[in-house]
Design a protein that fits this description.
Strand order of the largest sheet: 1-5-4-3-2
CATH superfamily: RelE-like
Order of helices and strands: EHHEEEEH
Strand content: 25-35%
CATH topology: YaeB-like fold
């Protein structure tokens, strides 16, 4: 099974994950995409993904962890039928625990995505 990656697009045409990527330095962008590619490669090979790379948070929302030189980035995502990984948004983690507002934002973006793709 080959997984593909998509980004959530809001009703006004914004893509929160792309906005996050554009807020990063060129080096950190490259590091983020290396992490995404590594993760997808593991999933496509059917290999176990360790918790230091990806972790289930709640209600089908997962986080993908990227270590930058000076901070830690998180990309939230969910799975959709047809081996699709849908990236909702990203943020720089400032606390040990993933902030509740970020999880809720991912859930809302998932709801919007499902609503848009049903049309």
């Amino acid at each position: 099974m080959n997984f593909t990656v998509e980004y959530v697009e809001t009703n006004d045409g914004k893509k929160p994950f792309e906005e996050f990527v554009l807020s990063l330095s060129i080096d950190n962008r490259a590091r983020l995409f290396e992490t995404v590619n590594h993760f997808v490669g593991l999933r496509n090979q059917g290999l176990h993904v360790k918790e230091n790379l990806s972790k289930h948070l709640e209600d089908g929302i997962f986080e993908l962890r990227t270590s930058f030189s000076d901070r830690i980035g998180r990309t939230l995502y969910f799975y959709e039928q047809g081996a699709r990984i849908v990236l909702t948004h990203g943020f720089i983690k400032k606390t040990q625990k993933t902030p509740r507002q970020e999880i809720e934002k991912a859930k809302e973006l998932r709801r919007l995505h499902k609503q848009r793709t049903k049309k």
